[in-house]
Amino acid sequence: GYRSRAAYKLKEIDEEMQLIRPGQLVVDLGAAPGAWSQYVRRKFAGAGAAAGELDGTIIALDLLDFEPIEGVTFIQGDFREDSVLERLKEAVGGRPVDVVVSDMAPNLSGIEVSDAARIAHLVELAVEFAQAHLKPEGALVCKVFHGSGYSQLVELFKRTFRMVKAIKPKASRDRSAETFLVGRGLKRVG
Ligand code: SAM
């Protein structure tokens, strides 16, 4: 089993888009309690990996600590802080990243404009990180919410990636406004 049902959302997205493969470097943003990292880890522990070894690298980041997952590098901190971003960059160590996944969600206030701004800010930072670190054919998966600000985030993805798709996994409750944007293939900055 997984630590959270959230794993099934990434599983559905991955099964549709074929994003996660052994040998990759994957960055998991907003990773606690660790279900997405567990899902990626299982894919890395398959055929090509020697017993007990992982064929692939996972770097996870969250505000909150969680029970360690063997082979997953964890950075605790706020992704919006420069010092935390620096630690993440150090862990990446200049290697090109295959996939960035972000399930980060801010604490919502219920005030639509400020919530939309908080969500947009996290997505914008994830897109910036992806632009700086992804391989040219790499992919970014980001949780977003329908409602105010959604179409601007789709536009941001379309400016950044050659292929953009919005996926609402069945494992996301119907009533929840969450959707996942998948961007693949960085557009060249002109
Ligand atoms: N994908 C995770 C899993 O499968 O276990 C679940 C992630 S949970 C829905 C969202 C996470 O985003 C929370 O653990 C929260 O602490 C984290 N988060 C929200 N804002 C953040 C920020 N600014 N920096 C880092 N993590 C953040």
Automatic annotation (TrEMBL):
<keyword id="KW-0808">Transferase</keyword>
<feature type="binding site">
    <location>
        <position position="62"/>
    </location>
    <ligand>
        <name>S-adenosyl-L-methionine</name>
    </ligand>
</feature>
<feature type="binding site">
    <location>
        <position position="36"/>
    </location>
    <ligand>
        <name>S-adenosyl-L-methionine</name>
    </ligand>
</feature>
<dbReference type="InterPro" id="IPR029063">
    <property type="entry name" value="SAM-dependent_MTases_sf"/>
</dbReference>
<keyword id="KW-0949">S-adenosyl-L-methionine</keyword>
<dbReference type="InterPro" id="IPR050082">
    <property type="entry name" value="RNA_methyltr_RlmE"/>
</dbReference>
<feature type="binding site">
    <location>
        <position position="103"/>
    </location>
    <ligand>
        <name>S-adenosyl-L-methionine</name>
    </ligand>
</feature>
<protein>
    <recommendedName>
        <fullName>Ribosomal RNA large subunit methyltransferase E</fullName>
        <ecNumber>2.1.1.166</ecNumber>
    </recommendedName>
</protein>
<keyword id="KW-0963">Cytoplasm</keyword>
<dbReference type="InterPro" id="IPR002877">
    <property type="entry name" value="RNA_MeTrfase_FtsJ_dom"/>
</dbReference>
<dbReference type="GO" id="GO:0008650">
    <property type="term" value="F:rRNA (uridine-2'-O-)-methyltransferase activity"/>
</dbReference>
<keyword id="KW-0489">Methyltransferase</keyword>
<feature type="active site" description="Proton acceptor">
    <location>
        <position position="143"/>
    </location>
</feature>
<comment type="similarity">
    <text>Belongs to the class I-like SAM-binding methyltransferase superfamily. RNA methyltransferase RlmE family.</text>
</comment>
<comment type="function">
    <text>Specifically methylates the uridine in position 2552 of 23S rRNA at the 2'-O position of the ribose in the fully assembled 50S ribosomal subunit.</text>
</comment>
<keyword id="KW-0698">rRNA processing</keyword>
<dbReference type="InterPro" id="IPR015507">
    <property type="entry name" value="rRNA-MeTfrase_E"/>
</dbReference>
<feature type="binding site">
    <location>
        <position position="78"/>
    </location>
    <ligand>
        <name>S-adenosyl-L-methionine</name>
    </ligand>
</feature>
<feature type="domain" description="Ribosomal RNA methyltransferase FtsJ">
    <location>
        <begin position="2"/>
        <end position="185"/>
    </location>
</feature>
<feature type="binding site">
    <location>
        <position position="34"/>
    </location>
    <ligand>
        <name>S-adenosyl-L-methionine</name>
    </ligand>
</feature>
<dbReference type="GO" id="GO:0005737">
    <property type="term" value="C:cytoplasm"/>
</dbReference>
<dbReference type="Pfam" id="PF01728">
    <property type="entry name" value="FtsJ"/>
</dbReference>
